[in-house]
């Protein structure tokens, strides 16, 4: 289903992604637009809503850039696995 060239390209993009998602975001002082809205409305983060184990693409105890890369590979693996499962069920 996924070829080596595609996997290599996606892996390179995942490894390069912290340049844009971590370093440049910090350098440009970028924040998500909804974060600005929440701040303007004096809303605080509700812990019940943030159920994800990899909040903001970070892993506790690891540098932000490494957590970003690991999160990318976990996401890639999940999408590829889902594709294979769907392929098995659709081809029947």
From TrEMBL:
Pfam families: PDGLE
InterPro entries recorded: PDGLE_dom
UniProt-recorded name of the protein: Cobalamin biosynthesis protein
Gene Ontology cellular-component terms listed: plasma membrane
Entry's transmembrane regions: 65-86
Native source species: Zestosphaera tikiterensis
Keywords: Cell membrane, Membrane, Transmembrane, Transmembrane helix
Location relative to the cell: Cell membrane
């Amino acid at each position: 289903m996924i070829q080596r060239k595609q996997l290599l390209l996606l892996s390179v993009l995942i490894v390069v992604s912290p340049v844009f998602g971590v370093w440049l975001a910090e350098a440009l002082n970028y924040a998500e637009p909804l974060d600005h809205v929440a701040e303007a409305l004096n809303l605080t983060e509700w812990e019940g809503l943030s159920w994800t184990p990899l909040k903001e693409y970070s892993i506790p105890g690891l540098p932000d850039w490494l957590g970003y890369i690991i999160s990318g590979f976990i996401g890639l693996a999940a999408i590829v696995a889902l594709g294979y499962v769907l392929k098995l069920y659709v081809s029947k």
